[in-house]
């Protein structure tokens, strides 16, 4: 493969590839192995679930067209139960599918056919964000934030409502919420909320993740009071934050 990227000394990061096309699996697996990743291939959702009983990977790459399940349901399950990155790699390029995949917790969405170098770059970007989300140090080395009766545990990406209901946030959601919590009552523009993602500040993923956070944090997401839109400037977390 003629790639301008060079293998990075990232160690054996584990990636599961879920796709019923064996040629595609071999292509993705071979590309990632060339750059130092450990990969395992699954042809069905059932096979993926069996692998997850053995080991939770750093990232799952999921096709939406599966023989035994809807790929979007798999994305939802991964986001709810496992603290790993999720990338959708599919031939379904409709905007509605892309938005739905991101809404359900996918960290990125790539449409086939794809450029192998871009795939590697996007995988690395997800893993960087996931690492930062898990290891980000809050003020005074604290790892628990409290705000308006809510509690966010940085180490486990766990968000707990005043009622006691809990969610395990995706790495993208966690990274964005942590940015807000470390800068409460300050406007964050779209570029800041993109962080180190390989995205344009115009990418709709920013709005999708804000929308997902609002659905959890707001009593009325259509009229948000916690994460406010500052038109022409960005978003603002309008709460007082206490770090424990």
Automatic annotation (TrEMBL):
Biological process terms in GO annotation: regulation of DNA-templated transcription
Binding region for DNA: 142-239
Residues in OmpR/PhoB-type domain copies: 142-239
GO terms for cellular component: cytosol; protein-DNA complex
PROSITE patterns named among the record's database cross-references: OMPR_PHOB, RESPONSE_REGULATORY
All copies of domain Response regulatory, residue ranges: 14-127
Entry-annotated residues carrying 4-aspartylphosphate: 63
Protein name stated in the entry: Two component transcriptional regulator, winged helix family
Organism from which the protein derives: Albidiferax ferrireducens (strain ATCC BAA-621 / DSM 15236 / T118) (Rhodoferax ferrireducens)
């Amino acid at each position: 493969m003629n790639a301008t990227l060079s293998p990075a000394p990232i160690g054996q990061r584990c990636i599961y590839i879920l796709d019923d096309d064996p040629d595609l699996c071999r292509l993705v697996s071979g590309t990632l192995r060339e750059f130092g990743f450990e990969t395992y291939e699954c042809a069905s959702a059932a096979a993926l679930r069996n692998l997850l009983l053995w080991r939770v990977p750093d990232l799952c790459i999921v096709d939406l067209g599966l023989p035994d399940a809807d790929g979007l349901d798999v994305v939802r399950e991964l986001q709810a139960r496992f603290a790993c990155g999720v990338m959708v790699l599919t031939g379904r390029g409709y905007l509605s599918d892309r938005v739905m995949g991101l809404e359900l917790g996918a960290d990125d969405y790539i449409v086939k056919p794809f450029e192998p170098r871009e795939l590697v770059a996007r995988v690395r970007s997800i893993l960087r964000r996931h690492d930062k989300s898990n290891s980000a140090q809050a003020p005074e080395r604290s790892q628990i934030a409290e705000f308006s009766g809510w509690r966010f545990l940085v180490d486990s990406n766990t968000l707990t409502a005043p009622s006691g209901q809990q969610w395990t946030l995706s790495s993208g959601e966690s990274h964005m919420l942590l940015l807000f919590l470390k800068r409460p009552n300050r406007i964050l523009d779209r570029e800041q909320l993109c962080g180190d993602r390989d995205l344009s500040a115009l990418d709709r993923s920013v709005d999708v993740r804000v929308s997902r956070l609002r659905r959890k944090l707001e009593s009325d997401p259509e009229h948000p009071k916690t994460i406010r839109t500052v038109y022409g400037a960005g978003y603002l977390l309008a709460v007082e934050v206490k770090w424990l």
